[in-house]
Amino acid sequence: MSKLFKLGQIFIIAMLLFSCKTPTPKDLAKENLIPKPSKLIAKGSSFELTKNTVIYVEAKSEGAEQIGTYLANFLKPATGFILQVKSADNAMDKKGISLSLSDSKKTLGDEGYELNIGEKKVQLQAYTLAGLFRGIQTLRQLLPARIESNKLQEGPWEMASGTIEDAPNFGFRGAMLDVSRHFFGVDDVKRFIDLIAAYKMNILHLHLSDDQGWRIEIKAWPNLTTHGGSTQVGGGEGGFYTQEQYTDIVNYAQERFITIIPEIDMPGHTNAALASYAELNANNKTTELYTGTEVGFSTLATDKDITYKFIDDVVREITALTPGPYIHIGGDESHVTAKDDYIEFINKVQDIVNAHGKQMIGWADIAAGSLKDNSIAQFWQTKPDNALKAVKQNVKVIMSPAAKAYLDIQYDSICPLGLHWAGYIEVDKAYNWTLESNVEGISKEDIIGIEAPLWTETIKTNDDIDYMVFPRLPGYAELGWSSNDDKSWDEYKVRLGKQKSRFEFMGINYYKSELVPWEDVE
Ligand code: IFG
C-alpha cells in the first residue's frame, strides 16, 4: 500500500478523532451570572461553539429570526465565525443552537426563558421574543469573557452544560441618562443601551430637557433646540436629537427589547424653554441661557393658556415618536411655582398626557396632585414623604432612592466625579438593599420596579459614564431581576469580581472599588 494512501488514512482517522473530541467537563453552577438566574441545574459537561455551529430558529416563531441574527452578529467579532441562521421546523431537534417561542413557557412570563445546554444542542425557549433576548444575555455570559471583544480571539468557545430556567422579579428595570446637563449624541446613547441590555435591563429613561438644555426637536416650537439646545453645563456647544435621530434611538432600544421613556421636566427645570420663548415666561421676557448647576429657580407660567398649548404640542410630537406607554413629565424641585399652581398644573398635564394615550410618570413630587391610578411616581428624595403620598393615592412607584441608586452620587469623598448631596454610595451600599424593604409603607405590590438615574452635571464623556455606572449597575439589574431570598453581598461581590475580564473586553472604564475581589477569569 503506497505511503500516500497510508498518510491519507492517518489523516482521516485524526480528523475523525478530532471531530469526536470529548467535551471538556465544566460546572454550570460555578459560572458568575449577573443577574443571578432563578433556577440552574449543572450537568457537568459542555457545548463547544465552532465555525460549523448553526443557529436554528423555529419556523413558526414569528420574529425569532431577528434574535438569531442578533446572536450571530454578536458572536462574529471575537470568534470570526460567520454562523448561519436557519429557519426550521422542530428547530429544537437540530444539533446546534436553537431558538423557539413556546406557549409552554407562558408561566415564565414576558421576559422569562429556559436555556438547555447539552453537548450537541443548545435550546433556548421563551414565551416571547423579549424572553429569547434576555436568554441570549445569559448565553453570552456563559461563553468566555473574551467573547465580548471586538477583535478576533482564540477559541475554544465552550459553555458549561445544564439547564437554566429564569424570569424577572420586577418587570421594570432600568437606568436614566440625563442628556440635558451634558449632551450625549446618538452613538453614545446606543452604547449606553448596549451596556444596560447586557444586564437584562428593559427601560431607558432619557432626561431630554432641563435648565441647561432642550434636547429633542419639537417642530411646532423650533427655538427649543436651535436656541435652547445650543449649550450645556460649563457653556459647551450642547446639541439635540432631531426627530429622526430620536426615532433611531427608539428603534435601537426596541431591537433590544428596551422601552424608551422620554422626560420633559416641568414646570420647574425649564430655563432652556423659557430662554427660547418669551410667552412661556410670566413676564413675557426670555431668560438667559443657563450653564450652571443650580436647581429650583425656573418655572413655566402655569396660569397662561399658551403654556398648556405648548405642553400639548410637545407631548403630541413626542408621543408620535414613542411606542412605549410612558411620558415622564418631571415635576421635581419646582421651588418657585406656587403650591396651588403646581397642583393645578400637574393635574392639567396628567390630562394632556392621558389624552394622547400615554401614562404619566413624574418624580414623586407630583403626589401633591390628584393622580390617576395609571400614573406612576418615581421615588428619589432622601425622605419618602412624596412617595408615600403617591402610594396612598394607589399609584405605583419606581424605586430610585438617591441614597442608594443615584449613579451620579460619588462612591466616596475622593471620587473625582459626581455629587454627594445624598451621601456616598460605594458598590456594597448600592447592592445591599431591596426594593420592597427600602421604605416602611412601600411594599412589593406598590413597586413597579427599579431605575438607576445618571445625572450629568459632572459627567462629560463615555469614560465618565462608565466610571459612575460600573460596577454599580449590574447590582441594580440584579435587584430588579433576581429574587433576594438568600441575597448576600459576600456572595455577590465574588460574582461581580469575576466580571472584571468581561468589563475590560467590553471596553468599560469601570471603577475598581477595593471592596470587590477583582479576578481575571476565562
Ligand atoms: N436632583 C435633581 C436633578 C439632579 C440631581 C443630581 C432629581 C429628580 C439632584 N432632581 O433628582 O435634576 O440635579 O443628583
Protein architecture, described:
By secondary structure, this protein is α/β, with parallel strands linked by helices. The protein has two domains: 22-166, Chitobiase/beta-hexosaminidase domain 2-like (Chitobiase, domain 2, 2-Layer Sandwich); 172-485 and 496-505, Glycosidases (TIM Barrel), CATH 3.20.20.80. It is built from 16 helices and 15 strands. The protein has helices at 3-19, 64-79, 129-142, 186-197, 223-226, 243-255, 271-276, 305-320, 339-355, 385-392, 402-405, 427-431, 462-469, 472-481, 489-497, 500-505; strands spanning 39-49, 55-58, 85-88, 96-101, 113-117, 121-126, 157-166, 172-178, 203-209, 259-266, 326-330, 359-363, 376-379, 396-399, 447-454. The strands form two sheets. An eight-stranded parallel beta barrel has the order 8-9-10-11-12-13-14-15, surrounded by seven helices. A seven-stranded mixed sheet has the order 1-7-5-6-4-2-3. The model has no long low-confidence stretch (mean pLDDT 96). Ligand IFG is lined by residues 295, 332-333, 363, 380, 406, 408, 419, 455.
Topology (SSEs and partners):
Layout: H1 3-19, E1 39-49, E2 55-58, H2 64-79, E3 85-88, E4 96-101, E5 113-117, E6 121-126, H3 129-142, E7 157-166, E8 172-178, H4 186-197, E9 203-209, H5 223-226, H6 243-255, E10 259-266, H7 271-276, H8 305-320, E11 326-330, H9 339-355, E12 359-363, E13 376-379, H10 385-392, E14 396-399, H11 402-405, H12 427-431, E15 447-454, H13 462-469, H14 472-481, H15 489-497, H16 500-505
Parallel strand pairs: 2-3, 2-4, 4-6, 8-9, 8-15, 9-10, 10-11, 11-12, 12-13, 13-14, 14-15
Antiparallel strand pairs: 1-7, 5-6, 5-7
Helix pairs in contact: 4-6, 8-9
The chain binds ligand IFG.
